[in-house]
Amino acid sequence: MKISCTVENIINVQIVNKVITKIDLIRLQESIDLMSQTYETINLIVLIYKLKGITLAANIEAIRLAIKEKNTIGKVAIISDNHLYKFGAKIDDFLTPWKEKYFSTSQLDKAWEWLQTSGKIIKAQERS
Known about the structure:
38% helix; Transcription Regulator spoIIAA; 4 helices; single chain; globular
C-alpha cells in the first residue's frame, strides 16, 4: 500500500494488487497523525485496483483507526472500477461520521474536486 501526502489536507492511498496488512494501517495512522499537526480535518483519496484481501489484524486495526480518527477524517473518496466498492462506500457513508463517496477511475478529477471542496481547512495552530 503506497501512502503519500498530496495537496493540503489530502492523503493519497494506493492499493494495487495487494493484501492489506496491519502494518499498512499503522503507516496510514502515522500519516494522519503527521498531517493532523497542520490540519484539523484530513481527507483521503483511496485508489483500489485488484485488492487481494485484508488480514484479520488489518481489519481490527482499521476499526481502531476509524474510532480514533472519527473527528479528524472529513471525506474519503474511493476510486475503483470495481463497482462493489460503490456499495461499500454507501454503507461506510451511512455508518461513519465522515462522508465517503465512490468514483470510477474515469472520474478521478471529480473525486479531487469533491475532496477539495470540503469547506474550511483549519490548520492546527488556528484551533486555539
